[in-house]
Amino acid sequence: MTATLARPTPEKVAVRAREIRDAIETDREFARLWETCAKYSADWTDFHGYPIIENYDALADAPAMFRETIRTMALKSAVYDLTNGDERAAELPVPVPVDVMSHALMAQFTLLCRIQSRGRFQFVHMTDLEEGDGGGTWDHGDYTHQVYREAFGPINERFWIGAAETERRRRVLDQVYAGIGVTERGKKVAIPLGVAT
After folding, report:
1. 102: which residues sit within 8 A by CB, 6+ positions away?
2. pLDDT tens string 151-183
3. Measured distance CA(29)–CA(108) in Å, rounded
């Protein structure tokens, strides 16, 4: 996204984002949304998203990660509403772990459709509009950070990892994974798959 985007002020986004977050969390199927995302934990594996979190634990980190993802999706939906459906403006840069968790959330497609219909908002998540290769362009002080802080207060530093630190951690993972045959950030895997002993 090299063109300048016209986005609403953080104050306007914050008001609408809190309304959307509240609509999600008070929806009659919110508990089911959490439960289905929690059950999805066996599929919460990737090479360069969650593993950039220090001492990541899929089960222990799930509640806080889910909360961050709901808030982030509310921010994106708020921008979408306030820009009359501008997907490009609404596809905010987000930290990689939150982006990966949003995939688990989006896997609950039918349930999400009902929740957004009842709440009268639109979830926004379009991979082709994300900046960078595999995300990781969110950074401290950017527009996403400003609207998040305005709407919900301080970020959870455990999951909101800035662009430079994300790349540094990914390079560490590149070296570790290369030793077992995983290269190109998980796009190529050459692990001998003989009989396990």
Report:
1. 69, 72, 73, 94, 125
2. 999 999 999 999 999 999 999 999 999 998 888
3. 12
The stretches of 83-183 forming alpha helices (DSSP H) are 87-90, 96-106, 109-119, 143-152, 163-178
Closest by CA to 100, choosing from 143, 55, 135, is 135
Pair 142, 132: CB distance under 8 Å? no
**Highest mean pLDDT: which of 2-16, 97-111, 122-136, 147-161?**
147-161
Select from 130, 152, 115 the least CA-distant residue to 36: 115
Which residue has tokens 């089911």? 32
What lies within 8 Å, CB to CB, of 177 at 6+ separation is 47, 183, 186
Per-residue b or e along 26-53, where b marks 16 or more CB atoms closer than 10 Å to that residue's CB: ebebeeebbebbeebeeebebbbbbbbb
Residue of 91, 165, 164, 98 whose CA lies nearest to 130: 91
